[in-house]
Amino acid sequence: MIKNASLATLLFMFIYNVSFQHIPKLSTARIALLVLLLTWWRPIYNEIKKLDKWVVFSILLINFCLAWAVIQYRFASGDSTQVSRLFHFQIYSIIGAIAFAVAYNHDHKEFLKGLSVVVFVQTIFIYYTFFSAEARSSLAALLVQGGNTSIENDLRAPGLSNSTGAVLSLIQSCGVASLLYLSLASKSTLKAICLTFCALIVAVSIVMVGRTGLYISMAAFFSYTVYMLFNQRRKILYFLATILSLYLLCYGPVQNEINNDSQIQAAVEWAFDIFLVGESASLEALQSMPVPPLTVDTFIGTGLVDDGYGGNASGHDSGYIQNYYSLGLPASVIFYIAVMILYSRFFLLNQKWILCPLIILMAVEYKEPFIMKYTLPFVMFTILMCLNFENKPRVRKIKKVSMLELRPRFIK
Q1: Does 262 reside within a domain?
Q2: For 310, left (φ over 0), alpha (ψ -120 to 50), or beta?
Q3: Contact 86, 62 (CB under 8 A)
Q4: Which among 67, 159, 203, 320 has the fewest CB atoms less than 10 Å away?
Q5: Do residues 139 and 151 lie in contact, with contact meaning Cβ atoms separated by under 8 Å?
Q6: What's the rounded Cα separation, in Å, for the pair 76 and 304?
Q7: For 298-335, how does the pLDDT look when each residue is reduced to its tens digit (9 = 90+)?
Q8: CB 381 within 8 A of CB 346
Q9: Count of structural domains, the chain
Q10: Domain that holds residue 102
Q11: Which uninterrupted H or E stretch holds 329?
């Protein structure tokens, strides 16, 4: 119990990576990783020594990109953002995944339970900070501002984190998927319904945070429902009956609250604009952003991510465009190939669903450089490392027996 609570605390510190104004360099993710490395340093070291040769090859490719970024920083751009991104990707997404896989004894269900608890706790903070202006003011005075809009003035809720928006919503959607997976794996119908309700509570909170995670959560619920209809009809019937009952009981009060509260109404309209208006403002903005033309400079890479004024040097939010503009076309292609190799080495042929997170990762990278924001690849790599370990064939040690022990007992 104490171990699980300690690991959940470290996981919260790691994935939300909170930075305080008085000590901005010492973020909670760094503290959590340091604690893990000091506590489990030997098994982590042994795990690193046993890495697959293709994993090592993909890490070498990423370090090639890192070396190229260092050269660009030193001799051309003077912008160290890309160097920092590639370095921290390896520390947080790869080393962090190994550390947490070891800490959870390579048990993917235990890790998902910890992730679910952590995300649900953050959900409570999201609801609280959405409705409490005092809480936002306290957070603004305590935490480093991470987004483009101040915590106090943003429509979206920050929870206990440095920023609102797509990154936080994406983390919360991982919790939704985790809770739904645990619901499917549960043998108890009551426990499965409780877990699904928890996932629904988390999904509703994402309306107050960001659209990216909301769309992923909706896709997760759709996949969950389809699977349940074909495989566990009794559970889904109980769940749908409960949802319908709650809807009939709560529709009136909830609808009145939304109509009377302009803040809730604005959040709902903003989150579901693609369904209410027929188009998404963020997608429209993304499509209107200019793509830097392929020139000698962009082919070899400019080394720029930050324009020096806190803006985007490439003029585009997409992770693919930002990496292409900064690293250059060949190096950016090498980086994404390395990520796919890293992922594929943990791919299990008997579990085709594992391809889905990779497709999601590559899809959301079009919107923002989420791979370089570490959390989604960290969660994916941790789960896959656990599954890979669980599905490895176990070789039993055979005791060596001498010829004298094999002789019949009556022979002396």
Answers
A1: yes
A2: left
A3: yes
A4: 67
A5: yes
A6: 9
A7: 899 998 888 777 678 888 888 999 999 999 999 999 99
A8: yes
A9: 1
A10: 2-390
A11: helix 329-344
